[in-house]
């Protein structure tokens, strides 16, 4: 799974589930798009479905400080690495 | 206890017989029924004997931003829509809406059963491949106070929240407790009401208790039949109603249109059986309401009876009305038009009473053709009757033995 694939899926989740189109990759999601704690929990569920893998409680807690799309992509990349799902283009 | 005067400065309803005031009044005048065949739900509907439902079958253009929609189940959509329409109609200044002096009293029978059903499917479904977490918003959509708090969120309302959930008295309690909040100075205005969504679970519950109508499945518009000899039970329905209650001087100073005045409220409990209607308990709530309003029985012109169309309930209610009022007031059972809209019925029946008060007529009890002799001692309305409703009483009684009586005065 490449960073491009992760980016594409995260943007897809934001469009489909949160009606946020083409968000700025470094924009503060809360301030710019009213993306709140409820949305963050929903996003984690979307990431679990994408990875076909349940996140641990600690992994979920780690996500609570995330503010931007780029940070989400970094976070998912970390999850992919831990699960040995990465592929190299 | 004397307190401040409380007036109604806006109202809105979503009902099986229409949404706008013009649609609802037209349905009342033409005797239109909102009872339709029960929809297939792939769960319960084929096991239920009663195959009718008071249905909202017209489109509603909900126009809510995602940030509000995301925590709403169907019941909250209804609630927020009527709340929005009532607030738009009232024209309260935005700084008042968010001042803490406006509160919300809003409820439903049990939150959103549609969303609850999805939660149960997640846990008890046969599939092993789905992730079994409950969505973060599922609880917010389905919880009992979902209507009230989605309203506070959408409009930034920071006053008190009351969220009664007492089945058929849910929204009459909302209005009653909202009235008391304003009357005694805790708030200057309260947005009050109730909602319930399309739900076959409720039908199944009443069906099991043999309380639902089953003899008119092939003629849905002919049931329920309050006070009629052929009545055979209630019909579950859906809908929503909201009224804005405001302290009189506050309303007057801002030049608000005043639709009516709440002059009394009573709520009591039968203190015993949770299902059977109780003549003593009901009679007492009617008397307490009159006392609270400082009215005598002969001053009440119109009674909106709870009248669900059950065999026993209508007789007990007729006896209680007669014991307190004699045969003075005109009596209509508005559920004849739309069935029992559960958590919203008290608010909807209050709003329909306000509409008739304004238009100078009383609608007949739909499907009341031959009055049951045990109910015949009242002044039943069987045709459109021109009338000035000076005082109207809205009666509601719920499972659990909860009774309410709201008294509304025409504002002149």
Helix content of chain B: 25-40%
Tally the structural domains of chain A: 1
CATH class category name of chain A? Mainly Alpha
Q: What is the rounded Rg of chain B?
A: 20 Å
Rg for CA atoms of chain A = 12 Å
Low-confidence stretches of chain A: none
Number of helices of chain A: 5
Topology as H/E string of chain B?
EHEEHHHEHHHEHEHEHEHEHEHHEEEEE
* Order of neighbouring strands in the sheet with most strands of chain B: 5-4-6-7-1-8-15-14-9-10-12
Strand composition percent of chain B: 15-25%
CATH class of chain B: Alpha Beta
Total beta strand runs of chain B:
15
Give the helices and strands of chain A as they follow along the chain: HHHHH
Ends apart, CA distance between termini of chain B: 24 Å
Number of helices of chain B: 14
Return the average pLDDT of chain A rounded to an integer.
93
Look up the CATH topology of chain B. Peroxisomal Thiolase, Chain A, domain 1
Description:
- The complex is a heterodimer of chains A (89) and B (412).
- Chain A has 89 residues and is mainly alpha-helical.
- Chain A has a single domain, classed as ACP-like (Non-ribosomal Peptide Synthetase Peptidyl Carrier Protein, Chain A).
- Chain A contains 5 helices and no strands.
- Chain A has helices at residues 3-18, 29-33, 37-51, 57-62, 69-82.
- With 412 residues, chain B is α/β, with parallel strands linked by helices.
- In chain B, strands 5-4-6-7-1-8-15-14-9-10-12 form an 11-stranded mixed sheet, with helices on both faces.
- In chain B, a hairpin with a 3-residue loop joins β14 (391-398) and β15 (402-409).
- In chain B, α8 packs across α14 (345-359) and α11 crosses α12 (311-325).
- The two termini of chain B are 24 Å apart.
- Chain A binds chain B through residues 18-19, 34, 36, 38-42, 45, 48-49, 54, and chain B through 66-67, 70-71, 131, 133, 135-137, 140.
């Amino acid at each position: 799974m490449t960073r491009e694939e992760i980016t594409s899926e995260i943007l897809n989740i934001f469009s489909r589930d949160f009606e946020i189109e083409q968000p700025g990759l470094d924009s503060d999601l809360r301030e710019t798009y009213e993306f709140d704690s409820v949305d963050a929990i929903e996003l984690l569920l979307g990431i679990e479905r994408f990875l076909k893998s349940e996140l641990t409680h600690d992994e979920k807690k780690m996500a609570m400080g995330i503010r931007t799309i780029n940070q989400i992509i970094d976070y998912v990349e970390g999850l992919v690495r831990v699960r040995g799902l990465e592929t190299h283009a | 206890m004397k307190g401040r005067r409380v007036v109604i400065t806006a109202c809105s309803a979503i009902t099986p017989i229409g949404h706008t005031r013009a649609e609802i009044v037209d349905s009342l005048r033409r005797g239109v029924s909102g009872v339709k065949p029960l929809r297939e739900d792939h769960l319960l509907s084929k096991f239920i004997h009663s195959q009718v439902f008071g249905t909202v079958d017209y489109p509603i253009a909900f126009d809510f931003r995602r940030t509000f929609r995301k925590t709403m189940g169907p019941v909250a959509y209804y609630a927020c829509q009527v709340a929005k329409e009532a607030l738009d109609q009232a024209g309260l200044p935005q700084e008042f809406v968010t001042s803490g002096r406006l509160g919300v009293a809003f409820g439903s029978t049990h939150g959103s059963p549609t969303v609850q059903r999805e939660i149960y499917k997640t846990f008890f479904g046969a599939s092993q491949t789905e992730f079994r977490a409950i969505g973060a918003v599922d609880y917010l959509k389905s919880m009992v106070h979902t209507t009230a708090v989605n309203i506070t969120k959408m409009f930034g309302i920071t006053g008190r929240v009351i969220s009664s959930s007492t089945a058929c008295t849910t929204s009459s309690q909302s209005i009653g407790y909202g009235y008391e909040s304003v009357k005694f100075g805790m708030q200057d205005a309260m947005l009050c009401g109730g909602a319930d969504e399309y739900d076959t679970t409720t039908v199944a519950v009443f069906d099991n208790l043999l309380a639902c109508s089953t003899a008119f499945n092939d003629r849905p518009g002919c049931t329920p039949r309050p006070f009629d000899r052929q009545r055979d039970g209630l019909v579950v329905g859906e809908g929503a109603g909201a009224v804005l209650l405001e302290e009189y001087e506050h309303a007057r100073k801002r030049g608000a249109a005043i639709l009516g005045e709440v002059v009394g409220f009573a709520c009591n409990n039968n203190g015993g059986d949770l299902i059977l209607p109780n003549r003593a308990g009901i009679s007492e709530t009617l008397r307490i309401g009159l006392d609270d309003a400082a009215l005598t029985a002969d001053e009440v012109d119109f009674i909106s009876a709870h009248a669900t169309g059950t065999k026993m309930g209508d007789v007990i209610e007729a006896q209680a009305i007669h014991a307190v009022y004699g045969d003075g007031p005109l009596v209509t059972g508005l559920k004849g038009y739309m069935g029992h809209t559960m958590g919203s019925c008290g608010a909807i029946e209050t709003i329909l009473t306000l509409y008739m008060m304004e238009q100078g007529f009383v609608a007949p009890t739909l499907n009341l053709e031959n009055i049951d002799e045990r109910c015949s001692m009242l002044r039943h309305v069987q045709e459109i009757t021109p009338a000035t409703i000076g005082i109207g009483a809205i009666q509601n009684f719920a499972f659990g033995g909860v009774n309410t009586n709201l008294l509304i005065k025409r504002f002149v």
